C-alpha cells in the first residue's frame, strides 16, 4: 500500500480505510491500556495521532517507541474520539525503523531555547519551529523564481569564485590551493599568485551583481539567486558570513523603475507567504511573534515611503532621540536609525535614496550635485535594510573617474568597464538578502535561525 505524507492524510475523510504512515515520534503518552503517539513527518506542522492498543503489541517493540524514533504504522484512518483531534490512525502494525535512545537523544524534551537548538543545528529541523521556518524558506525560494519567471526575467548563474570585489569592502574569503605553510614568493617577497590554481588571487564572491550587469546588457532582464560570502566580523542578529542573495538587474530601468520593482517584488512575496504558508505562519505567530501576521498584512496595505537620504538625516537629527551612534550628513545609517524612520516616524517601509557617494559602492550612478549617487535602500520594520540597490553608472568617463578617485585597480574590472564602451544603456538593479526576508516573514529575531546551517565568525561546525 502507498504511504501518504501526513499533510495529505489529514485532508482525507475518516472512512476507516487502511493507511500507511511514516514519521518521527514527537511524543508518546497514555495509560496501561493504550498509548497515544504523536507522529510527524515534516510535511506540515501538524502531527497525526497514532492510537496503540497495548494488549495487541509486544512490550519489547513498544519500549523502542520513544521520542525521536522513526516508525512505520499501518492501520485504519478513523475519526478521533479525543477532543481537538480530527483524525487518528489505529495501529495494527508498527515497524520501528530507527530507535532514539532517550538517555542520549538531545531533543527529548519540548520547549528548548533557540540558543540550545543552534548548538544542535543538525537536529533542529525536527522541531516544530524549524520545520515551519524551513518550509516557509522553501516557499519563498519558489515564489522568487515564479515572480521573475512570470515577468520575463532570466535566471543567470554567476560565479562563486571571483577575482573582483564588487562592493569594494574588502571583506572577502580567499580561495587558494597554495600551501599556506610554504608560500611561493616573487622577487619582492610577495606571494606569487601566478602559481595559484587560477594563476591569480581569487576569493568567494560578495555579490553576483557585476556579472549580473553583463546579463542585463544582453538578455534585458536577469536575476541571480545564490550564496554570497562576506568575511566581515559582524556578530549581529542580521549578519551571516554565508547568506543567499537575489539580485535582479534590468536594462533600461532607472531608479524610479527599480524602486517600483523592489516594492512590488517584496509585496508579492509576502502575499505568497500569506496565501501558501498559512499554517506555518499561524504557528510562528502563536509561538514567537504575536504581531507577525498583522505586520505582514500591514506591509501589503501601505505604500512604501520614498525619501531622500538628506531628508532622512534631517528627521533623525530633529527627532531628539539619543542614538548609540549619533548621525550627521555623510554617515552610514545604523539599524537603529533605519528602524527609527520606519517604525516610529513613518510607520511603514521606507525607500531611502540619493545617498552620499562616499558611503556607497563605485558603480552607482552619480547625481548632478557631485555629492550623491542614485542608491536605494529598502528599510523594513524590525529588520532595517532588507534591500540595497541603485541605478548604475552607465557613462564610461564618469565610471572611470570614480574608479580612479577610489584608487581601484582596473586589472580585475576591465571586462565590467567594457560594458560602458560597447552599447551602454541606463540600467538598474538591487540585492535582496534572502535571510533578511525570512526574518521578516517568519518573525524570528536572529538570522542564525532562518538558515539551516548558519556560518558566522567561529562557527562552521555543521
Ligand atoms: O547592500 P548590499 O551589500 O548590496 C549588494 O551587494 C549589491 N551588489 C546588490 C545589488 O545592487 N545587486 O547587500 C544587499 C542585501 C542587503 O540589503 C541585505 O539584505 C543583504 O544583502 N546582506 C546580508 N544579509 C545577511 N548577512 C550579511 N552579512 C549581509 N550583507 C548584506
Ligand atoms: Mg547595503
UniProtKB/TrEMBL annotation:
Boundaries of every Aminoacyl-transfer RNA synthetases class-II family profile domain copy: 134-452
Organism superkingdom: Bacteria
Main location: cytoplasm
Catalytic activity: tRNA(Asn) + L-asparagine + ATP = L-asparaginyl-tRNA(Asn) + AMP + diphosphate + H(+)
GO biological process, one term: asparaginyl-tRNA aminoacylation
GO CC field: cytoplasm
EC main group: ligase
Pfam families hit by this protein: tRNA-synt_2 (PF00152), tRNA_anti-codon (PF01336)
Any coiled-coil regions, as ranges: none
SUPFAM superfamilies, A to Z: Class II aaRS and biotin synthetases, Nucleic acid-binding proteins
GO MF annotation list: asparagine-tRNA ligase activity; ATP binding; nucleic acid binding
Keywords: Aminoacyl-tRNA synthetase, ATP-binding, Cytoplasm, Ligase, Nucleotide-binding, Protein biosynthesis
Subcellular location: Cytoplasm
EC number: 6.1.1.22
Family, per entry: Belongs to the class-II aminoacyl-tRNA synthetase family.
Subunit structure: Homodimer.
NCBIfam families with a match to the protein in the record: asnS (TIGR00457), PRK03932.1 (NF003037)
Name the record gives this protein: Asparagine--tRNA ligase
Organism this protein belongs to: Candidatus Alistipes avicola
The organism's taxonomic lineage, starting at the top: Bacteria, Pseudomonadati, Bacteroidota, Bacteroidia, Bacteroidales
